[in-house]
Write a structure and sequence with these properties.
single chain; Rossmann fold; 7-stranded mixed sheet; 11 helices
C-alpha cells in the first residue's frame, strides 16, 4: 500500500464546534446541486475540500499558506485516486483553471482589500460554467470585531445587506444568505478571544500578509485543536441539535458567520438586492 493510501486511512482531526456546524449547513446546501467540478480558494486544513469530495464532487484546491500540508494529508485519498489536486499558489495570480461548476471559499475574501475582492469575483465569473455559482463563508457582525480578526489579518466583517450590496456592485446576485453558528459561537466568543490572545498575540507583530498566510494553519488548544477523546462530543451527530438551532436563527444579525450563494448577474437580471440582503429566489428558505 502506498504512503498516500495509508495516510488516507488516518482518522480526521477533531474539529471546532463552529466548523462542524458550518460544514453541516454546507452539506445540506450542496444536496441541492448536482456534483460537478469545484475550485476551492484557500483550503486551509482541507475540511471543505474533503466534504465536497465526500458528496461526489471533483476539483482543485488552492492554498499558498502554511496549511497546505494539512490539506494534502486530509485529502490524501482524493489525491491518490485523481479526483483532487492541491496547488500551493495564490489563486488570484495563478494561471487560468479549467471550467468549474462551483467556486467556493471559507474565511478568505475578508482578507482581501476591495480591489482584490473585486478581482476574486472577476476570476470566479471567468472560471464558472454558465450554470455555475459561488459559495462564500465569511466572518459576520462588525460589532463583534475582536483580537482574532486582528491576528488573522482581516480587512472586514460582513453584514448580510452589505454583502448583497457589494456583490451587486461588482455584477453578482446573492441568491441565498444565512447566518451560521448562532448562538453557540456568540456564547463561546469571550473564551475564544482569551485563548487566541494567549496563544497567538505574538502574530500581531507580523506583517498583514504573513498573518493572512498563517490564518489557515492554527494550533490553539481548546479553540482549533482538541484531544482525540473530544471526538466523543465534537462530532456531527452530537451537535445536530445545535445545527437545528443555527437554522432556526439563520436570519439573526448577531450570527458570527455568513454563508452566501451567488451567481454572476446576466444582462437581463439587473435588479438591485433586497435591503435585507436576500433575493426572492433563495434567502432564508429551508435548505
Amino acid at each position: 500500500m502506498s504512503r498516500i493510501a495509508r495516510r488516507a486511512r488516518v482518522r480526521p482531526p477533531v474539529l471546532p464546534p463552529g466548523t462542524i456546524l458550518q460544514l453541516r449547513y454546507v452539506r445540506e446546501r450542496l444536496a441541492r446541486l448536482r456534483p460537478g467540478r469545484f475550485i476551492e480558494v484557500g483550503t486551509g486544513a482541507g475540511e471543505l475540500s474533503a466534504l465536497l469530495l465526500d458528496v461526489g464532487w471533483t476539483g482543485v484546491g488552492y492554498e499558498p499558506g502554511a496549511a497546505a500540508g494539512r490539506a494534502r494529508r486530509r485529502n490524501a485519498q482524493g489525491l491518490a485516486d485523481g479526483r483532487y489536486e492541491l496547488r500551493e499558489v495564490d489563486w488570484l495570480i495563478a494561471a487560468p483553471d479549467e471550467p468549474a461548476d462551483l467556486v467556493i471559499s471559507s474565511m478568505v475574501i475578508e482578507h482581501l482589500p476591495e480591489a482584490q475582492e473585486a478581482m476574486y469575483f472577476r476570476r470566479a465569473r471567468a472560471a464558472l460554467r454558465p450554470s455555475g455559482r459561488a459559495i462564500v463563508l465569511v466572518p459576520a457582525s462588525p460589532r463583534h470585531w475582536g483580537i482574532e480578526d486582528d491576528i488573522a489579518g482581516h480587512q472586514r466583517r460582513y453584514e448580510r445587506a452589505g454583502l448583497a450590496r457589494r456583490l451587486s456592485e461588482i455584477g453578482w446576485e446573492l441568491e441565498h444568505v444565512a447566518g451560521l453558528t448562532f448562538p453557540l459561537s456568540n456564547l463561546l466568543l469571550p473564551v475564544s478571544n482569551r485563548l487566541v490572545a494567549r496563544a497567538e498575540s505574538d502574530r500581531l507583530a507580523m506583517s498583514e500578509l504573513d498573518r493572512t498566510l498563517l490564518s489557515g494553519d492554527r494550533d490553539v488548544a481548546g479553540k482549533t485543536s482538541f484531544p482525540s477523546v473530544a471526538h466523543l462530543v465534537l462530532n456531527d451527530q452530537m451537535l445536530y441539535p445545535l445545527h437545528l438551532l443555527q437554522r432556526a436563527f439563520r436570519d439573526s444579525d448577531r450570527a458570527l458567520v455568513l454563508y452566501g450563494e451567488a451567481k454572476p448577474r446576466s444582462a437581463g437580471n439587473d435588479e438591485a438586492p433586497r435591503p435585507d440582503g436576500r433575493s426572492d429566489s433563495g434567502g432564508g428558505e429551508e435548505p
